[in-house]
Amino acid sequence: MKKINTYKNIMNNKIGIRVNGNESYKNLDNEDLLNALESTKNTKFNRYPDSDSKRLREEYGRLIDMPLENIIAGNGSDEMISLVIAVYVKRKSVVMTIKPDFSMYDFYVSLNNGVIKKFETREDGSFSLDDFIAFGKEINPNLIIISNPNNPTGHTLNNIEILKILDVFRESKILIDEAYYEFYGQTMLKYVNEYKNLIITRTLSKAWGLAALRVGFLISNEDNVVELNKYKVPYNLNQLSQDIACNIINHPEKVIKNVEEIVSERERLYKNLKEIELRNKEIITFYPSKANFIFAKSKYKDKIKAEMEEQGILIRYFNDDTFRISIGESWENDLIITVIKKALGYEVENNV
Prior knowledge:
Residues 33-328 form the Aminotransferase class I/classII large domain. The chain has helices spanning 30-38, 54-64, 76-88, 104-111, 129-139, 159-168, 181-184, 222-229, 239-249, 252-279, 301-310, 330-343; strands at residues 17-18, 71-75, 94-99, 115-120, 143-147, 173-177, 198-203, 215-220, 284-287, 293-298, 313-314, 316-317, 322-326. By secondary structure, it is of the alpha/beta class.
């Protein structure tokens, strides 16, 4: 039996504060919730959902100024990533990504018997584009996958850098995972018809605050979409998710406001964490981010983990000495700051 790089579910019932999954801490307000429920009143529960998600694709296409023929909708951007890998990765096909990056790439590549090759970045997620390209030329990948902003580091590539990758590797498919695009603002959407090798994935699980619905999109040129649709499973997105997502997509102004608040809170948290770092330069480092999380590295990761668990806080830990903190509500972030201080030996109040 072949070995699969599994995805570990790290949730449990003892956790009070969840800042590990990069979800939005902004839930639907009462008005949005009522409107969402109203949008489902005509849902035919006895019928299978629209297999093509046509209305949802039309609504999202209007939002991003893209024809529905360039869009596939699915059960989260994970399904869209899985679809791309299933179509373009065969046994021993080479997939290139960076280290670190989203762990589900490894999972889907291993499921399809592909070979994943990783270009290692610097600690903050940055890297030399020339070295990245040289590495790619050596391994000749069928597919290159990059999350932008990067998960887990929050590092970004600008459009000019991605265009260079697209130009050099014209025979490879290039998947740009824009799950956290809204927090960054730069996108490759306008290039999908110019570059036949470009594929983009998006999600409503992050900035849009709809993680429970599992709605994602793939955007590419029409030829790629036609080819990928041949392999998409029917009825892949339930009708409730389609109907509610259509309703929420029509109110982007609220998402824009939420993103501004989350980014502001991210910068406040980062400023406070950097102040801790300045007093403990040899043992902890926090890195700047263009997403809704902050990446960190510490020799005291185990102590931090123990203190977090004691307070019922779940953050994302990796196999080395790094970890990632999703941006939470203001009071949650304040508690995280205090818990990290305590783990590093600061004097803190006993009510923590």
